[in-house]
Request: fold
Amino acid sequence: MATTSALRPVHYPRAAFCVTLLLVFLCGAVAGALVMNYGAHRGLHQTAFWTDPGKEISIHRLQRELDLTPAQTEQLKVLLDDFAHYYRDVLATGKRSIYKILNDEQKKKFDRLLNEPDAR
Reply:
């Protein structure tokens, strides 16, 4: 009486477990890559509210969702401008502080790292 391969017991359970686990993770990685490739990542890259385009988006959204008065909207614009200046100052101060401890070659590499899209 011949047995079919589907009924045959697994001779290497540890190997079967590892292969199954590997296939599950590979399928997840492929599915994630496809989802990100077809535009799911766009929502992750929103414009920062301290930039001009981001500030306008933030102001319009807050106006709509909080039902701001015109006076409140003007105050919000001033606050976002102040925050943008503060944020740029903090970044510049931090960058200058880091430059002080780097040599010229490291400064070039640091600038390159700051300008990479993945670093943001």
